[in-house]
Fold this sequence. Notes:
Blueprint: H1 43-52, H2 56-82, H3 86-102, H4 106-120, H5 124-150
Amino acid sequence: MDSPRLTSSSGGVPAQPLAAGNVADPVAGLPAPAAPESRWVEPEILAELEEELDGAQLAQAFARDYAALWDQRFNKLSAAVDIQDRPASLDAVISLRIASAMVGGIRLAVLAQALEDAVRSGDFRQGQALLERVGEHGVHTVSELQSSYILKDS
């Protein structure tokens, strides 16, 4: 299976470019939180998922499962990072990164990649700092996914 793209399919724009007024975050040099008008979910990627799965029904089911499992997935990741369990942390963060990219949560996937890099290098202090942002991004991603995709036809 190919690794999901960490850019939008609509021109390869990075998931979270520095918006006017944003400065680089001291945590891993990542962009600071984006302006409220920025998207947490890329609809183009969800459209690609629908094509790959031959319709919206399976893609929406996948998105629904992703949203339903968010708390469990994040708690598993947080627990593994807290006890500095490298294999469990990598398993959890890779799962999060790939699933997030598949549902169009590219900003979250990019942040998860930074956390994965920190864990791979054994920098759990950096991992802890990134974990808080992963949690925040995850809540925003799930909320937007639910409102703009999962529940859009309800």
